[in-house]
Amino acid sequence: VQLQASGGGLVQAGGSLRLSCAASGRTFVNHGVAWFRQAPGKEREFVASISWNVGETLYGHSVKGRFTISRDSAKNTAYLQMSSLTPEDTAVYYCAGRYGGGVYTTASVYTYWGQGTLVTVSS
Questions:
Q1: Which residue from 57, 119, 115, 49 is spatially nearest to 88, judged by alpha carbons?
Q2: Which residue of 10, 48, 77, 86 is surrounded by the most CB atoms within 10 Å?
Q3: Res 98: pLDDT
């Protein structure tokens, strides 16, 4: 499975942005999909995950209530809707997938990774 993350850019604090994660090679059926982010000088951080078949979701503490992960089976694409952005959300955002579904916060369980998309939030 190849993952293509897109949608990053520059946004002002308080604004919104939607990231997309498109899969090619196979469908997301029976997969779990997640978003992670990594800011300069910081460790990779779990953002959100979704179990494709049942739609169960899980969010990182710092984004809960502001970000929403969703999926579109017809487009074989997962999304991360980000709202009320702050400069602390500035990072490269990566989408990741794993066969077997479920929602997990640990990066090592995900076997497919996209190339990352940069989100910059200005104050």
A1: 119
A2: 48
A3: 95
Percent with pLDDT over 70 in the chain: 100
Flag the least confident range among 26-30, 55-59, 70-74, 94-98: 26-30
Distance CA 21, CA 80 (A): 8
Sign of CA dihedral 43, 20, 105, 14: positive
pLDDT surpassing 90 at residue 6? yes
Query: Which token pair is 95?
Result: 């989408």
DSSP symbols for 43-81: --EEEEEEETTT--EEE-TTTTTTEEEEEETTTTEEEEE
Q: Is the separation of the CB atoms in 88 and 74 below 8 Å?
A: no
- Specify the residue for token string 């990566």: 94
Q: Is residue 77 a contact partner of residue 21, using CB atoms and an 8 Å limit?
A: yes
